Amino acid sequence: MLNLMLIFGASLALALGATPLARRVAGRLGVVDKPSARKLHATPIPLLGGVAIYVAVILAVALFGDRFYITQTIGILVGATLISFLGIWDDRFALRPLPKLAAQAVVASLVVWSGVRIQVFANPLLDFAVSLIWLLFITNAVNYLDNMDGLCGGISAIAAGYFVLLAVQSGQYLVGALAAALLGATLGFLVYNFNPASIFMGDGGSLFLGFLLAVVGIKLRFPSNVPLVTWMVPVLVLAVPILDTTLVTLSRLRRGISPLTPGKDHISHRLVRVGWTHREAVLALWVVACGMGSAALFVTHADVMEAYTVAGVALILASLALVRLEQLYVSTSSRVRPDIVRVPDPAQAKSPE
Predict the structure, then answer these.
(1) Residue 221: exposed, middle, or buried by beta-carbon count in 10 A (0-12, 13-18, 19+)?
(2) Which distant-in-sequence residues (6+ apart) come within 8 Å of 333 by Cβ?
(3) How many whole angstroms separate alpha carbon 37 and alpha carbon 343?
């Protein structure tokens, strides 16, 4: 436990110190997010916050991680490094969606091949396929959440915090170390990214966070309960990015738009469209994430009936939320001119998708 606290503290301190440096470097190199029709910030915002998160996580684990577990972590961190570099490249040169997804698939396949995989089915190929889909889906779902100041970082911090608690409960040091490093790095970054943000994490940060959270979700084990129950624990912890991506995908398919196309139709955008402030929308989603994380803690100790009751209630509430959010989007779309772009005050700047 002491080691996890050291990793958390080191990661937090490193992120607090590295983020202002990344902000200055991004400004000098011109790696900034410029205002455009689909974005609501009015001034260019530095995009290398993800580099600060990356450095904080890697150094904290390398400096204070148990040497016995470091060798097991190397494959994971190499994959996360490649994903982060891919995101940084995308921030700088704007990759097309399909090549970007293909590159992610290659990296994820290598990590799954190295042994980071779900072990639920009797068929190894099925385990491999489901693990690959999980890694790609969660990586991009967290990336999609980077659409409003403090949202992606806050949700990632909450998920990492619950993963730390779950890892401590089950005595899993490797998972706990990664989650503790993620928690410290995201909290340190949030100091500069909460509304009004002075720096964005960019794809280099959001893809890195999503990839590591997906890996932690796979590596979690609960010996005191059965797989029939425990499979839903990481799903509950990461419910907000899962719900957001599901909503956006179904909504865009309904409208004949590619799900890979950037847009302002995420849950946070929809809440703002009906009158919520940016901070209210972000904080509301933080509360939902905390509620789902608490449900995940309960499920780890629940029997099959209790666990599936919780899952059923969560599924019903999520379905109702999806329907209502889509109805609100349709009703407000009829009142919003698509050819008019409203540029808010710089203090209300949002991060890009």
Answers:
(1) middle
(2) none
(3) 9
- Report the distance separating Cα 284 and Cα 281, nearest Å: 5
- Which residues on neighbouring strands pair with residue 46, listed in sequence order? 32
CB 278 within 8 A of CB 347: no
How many residues belong to the chain? Answer: 353
pTM above 0.70, yes or no: yes
Q: For 16, what's the count of Cα atoms within 13 Å in the CB-facing half-sphere?
A: 11
Distance from C-alpha of 60 to C-alpha of 55, rounded to nearest angstrom: 8
Strands 45-46, 32-33: pairing kind? antiparallel
Tens digit of pLDDT at every position of the chain (353 positions): 788 999 999 999 999 999 999 999 988 888 888 776 566 566 789 989 999 999 999 999 989 887 666 666 888 999 999 999 999 999 888 889 999 999 999 999 999 998 898 988 888 999 999 999 999 999 999 999 999 999 999 999 999 999 999 999 988 888 999 999 999 999 999 999 998 999 999 999 999 999 999 999 999 988 889 999 999 999 999 999 999 999 999 999 999 999 988 888 999 999 999 999 999 999 999 999 999 999 999 999 999 999 999 999 999 999 999 999 999 999 887 665 443 344 444 444 444 44
Q: Is 43 exposed, middle or buried (0-12, 13-18, 19+ CB in 10 A)?
A: exposed
Q: Are 217 and 134 in contact (CB under 8 A)?
A: yes
DSSP 244-274: HHHHHHHHHHHTT--TTS--S-SHHHHHHHT
Alpha carbon separation from 243 to 22, 215, 314, 318 (Å, rounded):
31, 19, 11, 7
289, two tokens: 């994430």
Listed by start position, the domains of the chain span: 2-348
Q: CA-CA distance, 295 to 74, in Å (whole number)?
A: 32
Cβ pair 264, 344 in contact under 8 A: no
